[in-house]
Write a structure and sequence with these properties.
Length: 149
């Protein structure tokens, strides 16, 4: 197992040559066992997406070894930001709930206003109907004959 931040840079080819030579010269430790497998963990988040770094570490790990980039530090920072955002939203929610608790309950008043509105609409419809009846009566009224003198 090997943990590092990133590849050494200038000495990459020397290291790969040395590991290749060691793998070629060493025999199998046991029947069917790989020769010098290396499990690598790199901790530098800047190497994410860097193909040169990836190629170096995968070659260093070998066919039976493994290479991983540990981004847990960045993940923890991102998680911390999300938790702070949730905390801010929770505080806002608590403030709004307190305001809601302080507000007057208007449900009874709304029921009364709806009832009054329904009465008003009914009266308006009745008056409109009466106006239409009276208007019809005035238009269709026959004139009374003039008085006899």
């Amino acid at each position: 197992y090997l943990c590092c931040s990133r590849s050494p840079g200038m000495a990459n080819s020397d290291i790969l040559t040395l590991i290749k030579d060691l793998r070629e010269k060493s025999g199998e430790p046991a029947k069917g066992q790989p020769v010098l497998p290396i499990n690598l963990v790199a901790f530098d988040p800047t190497i994410v997406g860097d193909n040169d770094e990836k190629a170096f570490f995968e070659e260093l790990a070998g066919e039976q070894g493994k290479f991983m980039i540990d981004t847990s530090a960045d993940d923890l920072v991102a998680l911390d930001k999300m938790l702070k955002a949730v905390q801010v939203k929770k505080k806002q929610l608590d403030k709004l709930n307190k305001k809601l608790d302080k507000m007057e309950d208007l449900s009874e008043r709304v029921r009364e206003d709806r009832s009054l509105l329904q009465v008003q609409i009914a009266l308006q419809n009745m008056l409109q109907s009466d106006l239409e009846v009276l208007d019809w009566a005035l238009k269709n009224e026959t004139q009374a004959p003039p008085p006899d003198i």
